[in-house]
Design brief:
alpha/beta; nine-stranded mixed sheet; seven-stranded mixed sheet; globular; glucose-1-phosphate adenylyltransferase activity; nucleotidyltransferase; ADP_Glu_pyroP_CS; glycogen biosynthesis
Length: about 425
């Protein structure tokens, strides 16, 4: 351990820059009115809270968040929940919407452009290092360890990576590395991902996490902006260029993943499909879930509403407020209904004689009397009519709701309105 590591964490000289402008179209109607990083997760939090919490817990106190697609709910969440950083303590938190600062007719053209258009703001803070983060993944990671590796190796860029099944890597940047961990090739979203040598079924995928010395990155962004052929993207342009002309080092997620005493395997999820989103939330109802959100040593910070406790009422046969292997947030009232292996966000109302089974119910939804819902994601503020049944008739479900191939039904307000007004 170096003197610097012991006495002055590199995170103190680092700015975290979170890319949070993507829609996340594979989440279908869930992102009609909000960006993917603003999608609710885990009962209280939003997806972006994981990257931001990792930064805070790693000791980083300068943070910028670049937003673009339908950013209002995301910006409101950031203003409410992340306004505790104080300039007088040499801390900062900037929300950076695509505001046509470079050109009057140009929004963020790509991930690299989302940083380039704010170069003056970054340089004004003058951090020695900058870590680029994706704002749409669920994981716990100590960025200080990755920063330390970057300094120790002297690399131009350090890329966070994880091992994934080879054919699942088609949506990632995929890299080759030599025995020292140096990246020798980087391919963005290949149709036939290259395998790790000696492991034909596994690929090394980029997590969308990059560490640079700030001055070096600014030079690269200016060079890239002057190239008319560039897509202005880290994965397509910036990283491949550095791999060819500089030094790019891989950082294994296994080295910096944060595990509580109840976690056994490195947990990282791209909850970018309805199926993946539903499964990751339902996984939290396990007796020992793969992601420990109760870890007080690595808290997930978020906007915490002031709410009364959850309430369970009625104790009659067939009309008993009860929950089995479920997570129920504050301000929920389970009034004579039952839920099993389900996750309820803040302010849900469940009426008498209704049942929820493997349900993810977003804030302030209402479940009507005698409704039966199985394998569902209910969007925010949806009022489920009395007696509605979902999850028992695949053909009918597909006609009325967004039903995935694995049988998960996404239910939104417009879908319910179409039923109501027919």
């Amino acid at each position: 351990m170096t003197d610097r590591k012991r006495h002055a964490p590199i995170s103190r000289d680092t700015m975290a820059y979170v890319l949070a402008g993507g829609r996340g179209s594979r989440l279908m109607e869930m992102t009609d009115n909000r960006a993917k990083p603003a999608v609710y997760f885990g009962g209280k939090t939003r997806i972006i809270d994981f990257a931001l919490s990792n930064a805070i817990n790693s000791g980083i106190r300068r943070i910028g968040v670049a937003t673009q697609y339908k950013a209002h709910s995301l910006i409101r969440h950031l203003q409410r929940g992340w306004n505790f950083l104080r300039p007088e303590r040499n801390e900062s938190f900037d929300v950076l919407p695509a505001s046509q600062r470079v050109s009057e007719d140009q929004w963020y053209a790509g991930t690299a452009d989302a940083v380039y258009q704010n170069i003056d703001i970054i340089e004004d803070y003058a951090p020695q290092y900058i870590i680029i983060l994706a704002g749409d993944h669920v994981y716990k990671m100590d960025y200080e360890i990755m920063l330390q590796q970057h300094v120790d190796t002297g690399a131009d860029v350090t890329v966070g990576c994880l091992e994934v099944p080879r054919m699942e890597a088609v949506g990632f940047g995929v890299m080759h590395v030599d025995e020292t961990g140096r990246i020798t090739d980087f391919v963005e979203k290949p149709k036939d991902p290259p395998a790790i040598p000696g492991r034909p079924d596994t690929a090394l995928a980029s997590m969308g996490i990059y560490v640079f010395e700030t001055k070096f990155l600014m030079d690269q962004l200016r060079r890239d902006a002057a190239d008319p052929k560039s897509a202005r993207d880290f994965g397509k342009d910036i990283i491949p260029h550095i791999v060819r002309h500089g030094t790019a080092q891989a950082h294994s997620f296994n080295l910096s993943v944060v595990l509580s005493e109840n976690e056994h395997d490195a947990y990282w999820r791209d909850v970018g499909t309805v199926d993946a989103y539903w499964q990751a939330n339902i996984d939290l109802t396990d007796v020992v879930p793969p992601l420990d959100i109760y870890d007080r040593n690595w808290p997930i910070w978020t906007y915490s509403e002031i709410t009364p406790p959850a309430k369970f009422v009625h104790d009659e046969e067939g009309r008993r407020g009860q929950a089995i292997s479920s997570l129920v947030s504050g301000d929920c009232i389970i009034s004579g209904g039952s839920l099993r292996r389900s996750l309820l966000f803040t302010g849900v109302r469940q009426r008498s004689y209704s049942s929820l089974d493997h349900a993810v119910v977003l804030p302030h939804a209402t479940i009507g009397r005698s409704a039966r819902l199985t394998n569902v994601v209910i969007d925010r503020g949806v009022d489920i009519p009395d007696g509605l049944v979902i999850g028992e008739d695949p053909v009918l479900d597909a006609q009325r709701f967004r039903r995935t191939e694995s049988g998960i039904c996404l239910v939104t307000k417009p879908m319910i309105d179409r039923l109501t007004y027919r």
